[in-house]
Each structure stands twice: as C-alpha cells, then as structure tokens.
Request: fold
Amino acid sequence: MTGTTEASTTIPRWHVAGDWFDTCKCNVPCPCSFAQPPTYGDCDGVLAWHIREGGYGDVPLDGLNVLMLGSFVGNVWAEHSDAYGAVFIDERADDAQRAALQMIFGGQAGSWPAEMVSMFGPEMRGMDFAPIEIKVDEDLASWSATIPGRVEARAEALTGPTTPDGARVQTTNLPGCETGPGQLATWGRATADRADAFGFQWSREGQSSKHITFDWAGPE
Reply:
C-alpha cells in the first residue's frame, strides 16, 4: 500500500518555457520587479503564462495557458500581508494536462513556482477551467490575455522620445524577477486592465505592465 502511494505521488521530469506578463496597479515601472514596495503600498493585477513548449513526463503542454489574479499589501519579496490569489487553467487541457498544470503552477512539482508560491503564500479564492486567450507579438510590440466577461489585460511596449523606432525597453538581472533568475523583461504600459472574478474587481488603464520570459524544469 505504501509503495502504491509513493508511486502515485512521484514527480516526473518536466520542463516548460514561454511567455509571462502582468498588468498591475503600480506606476511604470512596477517597483515589485526591483524588489521594492509597490507604488501605492498595495498591488493587484493579472498574471498570465503562455507555454510555448513543455511537457510533464510524457504529457505534452505546448500551447496551453494559465492565468492568475492576485493581490497583496507590502513588499512581495519581503514583509507582506493580505495575499490572495485565484487561478484559471486553460479549458482546452485534457485531464492529464490539467493535473500537470496544477502540479507545476501550484508549486508541488518543484523549481521556481515552488519558491514563488512559498514566498507569496496567498490564500486562494478559487480555481476554474476557462477559455484563456493569450496573444504575444513576436516583436513584443504588444501582449494580451482575455477570459470573456471576467478578465481583460492588454499592454503595448513602452516607448518614449529617446527610444529608437521598433526598439524595446528591456531589463536583465531584475532584483525581483517574477519568473526567476536569468530572464529578460520587456517593459510596457497597460491599455486595459480589468478583472471581475472570485472577489477581485478593478478596471483601469495606463499603469505598469511587463513581459518576461520563463524557463523552468523540475522536480528539483
């Protein structure tokens, strides 16, 4: 009986890589990415992941999406409180894929998500399977995530008087990189940031957004 239980909870080798971005309450650039307190002392926003390639053991995860609504008070990388979250998983995923995504993004399969979940420590308000549409321009001119009637997050790449045409405002070695060390961040400004689900409700535009790559492997 013990052997069966151990076998059923064994974490296979897994790897996922792709695009992450957020839209949040903070001014541009979001201080959280620099391991500083948020602009207004508290923050809430949309976090979206698109898996370009990945697998959990022999379960393919290419092309699937995950979205989270989150909020907290204080510095997410240090002392903070009132952390809450809700997660949406791509409704296109089959049963095996849904289980794999919940293991990875719930932090139970190790790697960076386990560290982030442990640090953030949110009280979860809910989880649902939903039609998540995520679009990311190949040149990172814009990115978006929508769940009809519940979430809309859209952003355009940040630019300004001294930014060359077509160039991106980017940062490496962020002190508070939400997807872990070694990733590249591209800064943007939200053109839409709306949520109405699981007790999260806001509607705004013009605030911070950033796109960051992610590349995780586990179970270590």
